[in-house]
Write a sequence for this structure.
């Protein structure tokens, strides 16, 4: 499947490390340079705002998806190519998945991790066959990756499902991994349990 649009999950703050913002800008610029549109949470603050601003400045397509409750707090990015407003967070996440051909998480907090893990769960269950990756800026996700290795080692996560989460510290390498992702029969294990 061609990667026409990538959903980017990231923080609504910039975090303590300037490398986070630099990576957000670099990722956005690289995707635009490859002719890939961006789908993101629709905010104008934090790493979300950095992604959108960089992509728009480079002439890229940016689709923001934001719940009306957050739009009402004036957090919506008015410069997006398109800003879609949903009623709920659940609708937001579904729409972002529907609009995207792959997913990348940048550093972020609960919201970013929620989006990441829901997307991974849907991949595991076979609800989609799209690549999911981490841009591991300054080793931000190292503890998470180690934890997932632990979960796999305790046989609570199948090795093929652990391997489905891609991770690189440079946008170019991560995008190459997303392009090379081979969908597997993630949902087949449910049948095997019967």
């Amino acid at each position: 499947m061609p990667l026409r649009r990538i959903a980017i999950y990231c923080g609504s703050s910039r975090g303590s490390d300037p490398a986070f913002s630099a990576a957000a800008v670099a990722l956005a610029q690289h995707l635009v340079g490859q002719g890939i549109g961006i789908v993101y949470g629709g905010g104008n603050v934090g790493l979300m705002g950095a992604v959108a601003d960089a992509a728009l400045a480079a002439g890229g397509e940016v689709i923001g998806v934001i719940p009306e409750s957050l739009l009402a707090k004036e957090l919506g990015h008015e410069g997006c190519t398109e800003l879609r407003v949903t009623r709920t967070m659940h609708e937001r996440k579904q729409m972002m998945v529907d609009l995207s051909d792959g997913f990348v998480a940048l550093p972020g907090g609960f919201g970013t991790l929620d989006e990441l893990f829901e997307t991974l769960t849907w991949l595991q269950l076979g609800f989609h066959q799209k690549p999911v990756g981490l841009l591991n800026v300054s080793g931000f996700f190292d503890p998470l990756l180690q934890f997932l290795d632990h979960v796999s080692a305790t046989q609570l996560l199948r090795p093929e499902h652990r391997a489905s989460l891609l991770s690189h510290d440079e946008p170019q390498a991560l995008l190459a991994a997303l392009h090379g992702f081979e969908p597997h029969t993630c949902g087949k294990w449910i049948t095997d349990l019967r």
The CA atoms of residues 4 and 137 lie 24 Å apart. The chain has one domain: 5-192.
